[in-house]
């Protein structure tokens, strides 16, 4: 537990700049109870007015927490949310930030990942991420290709590129921890082509067989590739067509992250691209659905308005 508390202390100080007397809310669930407890202990040691809250595990990523917890988040100064299902893309998290709270979600983080990645140099990650954003901001079109068959284009026109650097010192700021990505919502209806995800998939883990997804009109169509593809179909089928929306294009910028099977870390691996299906409201899109599933693509080439940003998994900055 000592190492977990030390890692939590780094997150609360270096990333969130928690001050003595601030109201810090920790929301966790049973699978991540020890990590939630570590955050509470670290916040208490910093002199914060710390609150520990354990909720019943949500059924899916993006499902809302209890209303009472949402109300508590809305009036706190800082939140840390290590839960087995992500609360990142929820109204509760969005409303909290809109009301001035700052904080991080840590969906499905494990103890090894926490000890290893929360000690990364987030100043360097911040610098690297902002260089990527500078190359994407204002762009019109993105194309992703891989040797395994990914070839998809999407419009970025009018969409802002966001940063996830881990630095959340300003009111309303939010991040995932571990952090390290640049991301944006492609224009709804614009994506077409094929995704061959060969890294990992939210809700599944590291993929043993690539998942191939046909995309037309901004929606994922046929999903093939064996048992894991069937699992992905099952995860999104209950939410209807909106869960098939091509919701996100993201670029990993964390040099300490490794492909571990946890989307929280996998989508941050430097030189990877991830494409998500489902909700995109948090990143400036228009589709609201209680599902957001990231698919990690290894060794991609990313072309922005005709210029290569990543070449076969090598970040060109």
How would you describe this structure to a colleague?
The structure is a single chain. With 317 residues, this protein is an alpha+beta fold. The chain has two domains: 2-117, Thermophilic metalloprotease (M29) (Thermophilic metalloprotease-like); 122-315, no CATH class. 25% of the residues lie in helices and 30% in strands. It is built from eight helices and 20 strands. The protein has helices spanning 2-15, 33-45, 67-74, 91-98, 111-117, 122-136, 227-237, 263-266; strands spanning 23-29, 49-55, 78-81, 102-105, 141-145, 151-155, 162-164, 174-176, 181-184, 192-197, 200-201, 205-206, 211-216, 219-224, 246-252, 273-278, 292-297, 301-304, 307-311, 314-315. The strands form four sheets. Strands 14-13-10-6-5-18-19-20 form an eight-stranded antiparallel beta sheet, with helices on one face. Helix 1 (2-15) packs across helix 2 (33-45) and helix 1 (2-15) crosses helix 5. It starts with a helix and ends with a strand.
